[in-house]
Write a structure and sequence with these properties.
With about 220 residues, the chain is α+β, with helices and mostly antiparallel strands. It has two domains: about 80 residues; about 120 residues, Immunoglobulin-like. The chain has two helices and eleven strands; from the N terminus they run ααβββββββββββ. Strands 1, 3, 6, 8, 9, 10 and 11 form a seven-stranded antiparallel β-sheet that branches. A four-stranded antiparallel β-sheet has the order 2-7-4-5, with no helix packed on it. The chain is elongated and about 90 Å long.
Length: about 220
């Protein structure tokens, strides 16, 4: 799960502001020296003078805008995190191609953008290594399901954990077929990882933005 850290963005912006402050002082010093030592018979062109000031001002405004956006993102994540607490204990559906293998059983529900003419399905472990691969012939456009017994291609029973489904193929027009998976389970934990609010559904960790449905968990 690759995310952009708000902390990293803030650090980059702060470094930029510091550098700009130093450069701005240098710019003013050079400009003042230039004005003091200009040739009276060939003074600094007003348009050139204005353009120099406008350029520095534009950079300042851009950095200030970036600072404001970073603050808004941080506040938005804090608000999301607070609201996400209400999801704990609820039955939550999330968009992900990950699924948990539990007691030798895992199930994926996924939508295909088109019926593939030649599809390959892979199951990857948490290190991104392919542990099982196959070429099912019954895949079609729309909702599909895949049940897996947790056995690798060589027949070895793999340990419980989170595995990722990967579907590749092309349709009748030779366009790539995409697979969009979903998982439904109890939300049990919320945390911040790399500046992003992450929800644990069953054993799968997903960004809070991946939530597509919420309902009250059954009492029995």
């Amino acid at each position: 799960m690759a995310v952009t850290s708000v902390q990293q963005a803030t650090s980059t912006i702060n470094s930029g502001v510091g550098a700009l402050a130093s450069n701005y002082e240098t710019f003013l010093s050079l400009l003042t020296t230039q004005l003091k030592n200009q040739d009276p018979l060939s003074p600094l062109d007003n348009n050139q003078f204005t353009q120099q000031l406008t350029s520095m001002t534009g950079v300042q405004q851009q950095l200030l805008t970036n600072q404001l956006l970073t603050q808004m993102i941080s506040q938005n994540q804090a608000d999301l995190g607070g609201g996400a607490i209400n999801l704990i204990g609820k039955l939550v559906t999330v968009a992900t191609n990950d699924a948990a293998l539990t007691n030798g059983a895992a199930t994926w529900s996924f939508d295909l953008s088109a019926t593939p003419k030649d599809a390959a399905v892979e199951i990857l472990n948490e290190r991104g290594q392919t542990v099982w691969a196959g070429k099912p012939t019954d895949l079609s456009e729309g909702t599909n399901e895949l049940d897996w017994n947790g056995k690798a291609s060589n027949g070895q029973q793999l340990p419980d954990g989170v595995y990722t489904l990967k579907v590749t193929g092309k349709d009748a027009n030779n366009n790539a077929v995409t697979a969009s998976g979903t998982v439904t389970g109890l939300a049990s934990r919320i945390q911040t990882l790399d500046g992003q609010t992450v929800l644990t559904v069953g054993k799968v960790k997903v960004p809070l933005t991946a939530v597509t449905g919420v309902e009250t968990a059954p009492t029995s």
